Amino acid sequence: MEATHDHAHDDHGHHPTGLARYFFTTNHKDIGSMYLWFSLIMFFVGGFMALVIRAELFQPGIQIVNPDVFNQLTTIHALVMIFGAVMPGFVGFANWQIPLMVGASDMAFARMNNWSFWLMPPAALLLVGSFLVPGGAAGSGWTLYPPLSIQGGISVDMTILAVHIMGASSIMGSINIVTTILNMRAPGMTLMRMPMFVWTWLITAYLLIAVMPVLAGAVTMLLTDRHFGTHFFNAAGGGDPTMFMHIFWFFGHPEVYIMILPAFGIISHIIPTFARKPLFGYASMVYATSSIALLSFIVWGHHMFTVGMPAAGNLFFMYATMLIAVPTGVKVFNWIATMWKGSMTFETPMLFAVGFVSLFTIGGFSGLVCSITPVDITIHNTYYVVAHFHYVLFSGAIFSIMGGVYYWLPKWTGHMYDEKLGKLHFWLTAISFNITFFPQHFLGLAGMPRRIPDYAPQFTEFNQISSVGAFLLGFSQLLFLYVIIKCIRGGTKAEAKAWEGAEGLEWTVPSPAPHHTFETPPVFH
Amino acid sequence: MMKTLRQIAGSSLALLPLMAAANYDVNIPAPHTPISNQIYGLHMEILWVCLAIFVVVFGVMFYSVFAHRKSKGAVAAHFHENTTIEIIWTLIPFLILGFMAWPATKTVLAMKDASNPDMTIKVTAYQWKWQYDYLNDGVKFYSTLSTPRAEIGSPGEPGKPVSEHYLLETDNNVVVPVGKKIRLLITANDVIHGWYVPQLGVNQYGIPGFIKDSWFQANEPGVYRGQCSQICGKEHGYMPIVVEAKSAEDYAAWVKEQKAKQAAAEGHEKVSMADPVTR
Predict the structure, then answer these.
(1) Tens digit of each residue's pLDDT (9 = 90 or more) over A104-128
(2) pLDDT above 90 covers what percent of chain A?
(3) Confidence band for B3, pLDDT divided at 50, 70 and 90
């Protein structure tokens, strides 16, 4: 980022400039910024695909893209958003904030950190570029179930390769994060005195190390079934397509917690700051996050209630899934208890945080509805599920990323962002988000399946409302881009402690944070 | 509220022929089988629970948002833990969940019990149609979307969806007798598909190479429409399911008609070994 560039020259005479600086950097702030920009770009790429999808779904019939391309769009939209926008976004925050928050000079493995980032753009090119190869992009849904994904063309192989590359990036990044957190905390910072964002990332990093190899295994089996004569997922050879589902979702369920735990961490910083009150129940928050992470390993079957598992299987997964509501509820109650009897102001980060608590909770309710197996039978693979996961991923994960960006932009750039425009961005986003996704609950209950480009006329009205909302939502994000760029270029000078109620080591260094911070560990009280 | 929702759902069903009317149905379509009735009931129960939690949680939060503002002169308290209240708000959700899990368990067990059926239909999913094989009655046929392609259209040449049951109509419907327990043996020929008819309470994958069972019992005569529920390629949205529940006599008449059709189709291929000379 431009604002930190000057400081770099103060320390070293041999600092590279321009593109070379970013290509060879081992600095956690530079790498954090690259992840965040990459995430924002991918968010717009995935968002563009979503708009094409919603445009096609505006009315029954096929108007814009043929069904084949529609399937490709839904598949790549999901892969780009999950692996290109949400996960790298949170890694960007991890890179910028973890060393600052624990009082470390950088990540433990600064050079590996560079490679973790630079693996991502080629993977993104593989995913997005797969639209251009014969047969088009993979069209099996992001879940890549065989035998359908075995039928696909070379784009499936490109997708598999991209997944491997991104998995390697995540695993290396996670090793870095765990090592940094466990070994490089400032003296006096015991585990139970770490900031919540550091806790949530510690736990997330363990989840990533545990499950990314499982995904790698699953997609490698797809690759060998496709090209090397194996039949893991082919009944004719003694295999079983259901086995893919088990392996995939063993990764897939912890994956969704990987995408929300850092969000919980960010919200746990924003609310205490703007309530001017300490986080309620720090220890419970740590235990709740750990319980969620542990439980996340034993619930994968709730993605498979319609596969025909024996009753015992369905019942076990139903009970385990319902259980996750308990620690999640504890977290929501703790955030509200933090707000309670605080002295609150509602700058943009706080708007996103309150928006998160409200809307993520609604996503939690629809998740609870899905967890009841018989009810899931009527809503599995319908728009109800689409509504559920967009509530937890967009108004959950993405809102926390946006809130976090507004919260820490003053630290990163040295300027306060334009508060009026930030608030406008929040309200436009929150309102249009609900217009887009709330009606989808009704569509799902009424029986409209997902991943279809065309639908029976009784689903028209809610689809039209949803599509209008989607366009409002998509275009509102241009305001976010504008606010960020405007803030980088200038604005009211930000204090070291940019927010009155902010606590934590990152607020003890100047804004913008110098290129190198905590070269000597601080004493943590 | 429940009665109103049922009325809305029910009258919407009756209004199906008037597809031109705007549709704002917000709930599960009217259930017509023992299982789908239980599903409907479970969903309503959990909605009430969610509503109660919503009112309490959002009530507290929005009260706080208004009352505990710096601009209102609120001074921040310093408390940051309270073991008693934390135990309470961990235990109460746990109990609520137990209360919901009990009826749900009964329904799961009922859904799995396909024993003692009155008849069995083998369902095979294809890219992109269904095949039905009535194992007791010897009727077998394919069922394909019957909406004309021209109505669907293509990029640049949009169609005009005018059929009354656009995308939810087939050339051969799955006719079943009313009030009988129908066991389904579901499989697939190529990729994973899903046999999904919401009003019958069935949503189950057809997995190539495996046969798994499900069941339903339509207690009222009527037409029940569904779609494929697992992405299976480019025509995934174009392989619907239409189940027609008929009275015992009408069903028997239909079986007779189907068998006659099949016999006629096979007729000209039959060769009698008794007179090779005539061949």
Answers:
(1) 999 999 999 999 999 999 999 999 9
(2) 96
(3) low
Q: What is the CATH number of the domain that holds A242?
A: 1.20.210.10
> Is residue A513, in this structure, part of any structural domain at all?
no
Q: What's this model's pTM, rounded to 2 decimal places?
A: 0.93
Is residue A260 within 8 A of residue A324, CB to CB? The reply is: no
Residue A199, preceding peptide bond in cis (omega within 30° of 0): no
pLDDT in tens, A440-452: 999 999 999 999 9
Picking from A303, A354, A377, A450 by the largest number of B CB atoms within 10 A of its own CB, the best residue to mutate is A377
Residue of A372, A382, A460, A462 to mutate for B, most B C-beta atoms under 10 A = A372
User: Does B271 have pLDDT greater than 70?
Assistant: no
What is the structure's pLDDT at A3? 47
Catalytic residue among A25, A39, A74, A268: A268
- Asked whether residue A524 is assigned to any structural domain, the reply reads no
Q: Are B97 and A322 in contact (CB < 8 Å)?
A: yes
**H or E stretch including A3?**
helix A2-11
**A313 lies within 8 A of chain B by CB:** no
Q: Structurally, how many domains does chain A consist of?
A: 1
Give the span between the Cα atoms of B201 and B184, in whole angstroms. Answer: 12
- Using alpha carbons only, give the angle A91, A28, A18 rounded to the nearest 5 degrees: 110
Complex-level ipTM: 0.93
Q: Which residues contact A13 (CB under 8 A, 6 or more apart)?
A: none
Active-site choice (A30, A56, A157, A255) = A255
> Which residues of A are less than 8 Å from B35 in CB distance?
374
CB-based contact B108 A318, cutoff 8 Å: yes
Out of A235, A277, A369, the one facing B210 most closely (by C-beta) is A235
Exposure class string for B95-106: b at 16+ Cβ within 10 A, else e: ebbeebbebbbe
Task: Using pLDDT thresholds of 50, 70 and 90, give the confidence band for residue B19.
Answer: very low
Nearest CA-CA distance, residue B198 and chain A, Å: 6
- Asked if B46's CB is within 8 angstroms of A318's CB, the reply is no
- Please choose, from the candidates A308, A304, A289, A445, the residue with its C-alpha nearest in 3D space to the C-alpha of residue A371: A304
With an 8 Å Cβ cutoff, are B234 and A322 in contact? no
Domains of chain B: 31-112 (1.10.287.90), 119-264 (2.60.40.420)
Close Cβ partners of B249 (under 8 Å, ≥ 6 residues apart)? none
User: How would you label B243-275 residue by residue, b for 16+ Cβ within 10 Å and e otherwise?
Assistant: bbbbeeeebeebbeebeeeeeeeeeeeeeeeee
Helical segments of A298-382, H only: 311-339, 348-371, 373-379
A447 conformational bin, left if phi > 0, alpha if psi -120 to 50, beta if neither? left
Spell out which residues of chain B touch residue A369, defining contact as CB-CB under 8 Å: 43, 46-47, 50
Q: Which tokens hold the place of A222?
A: 């797809």
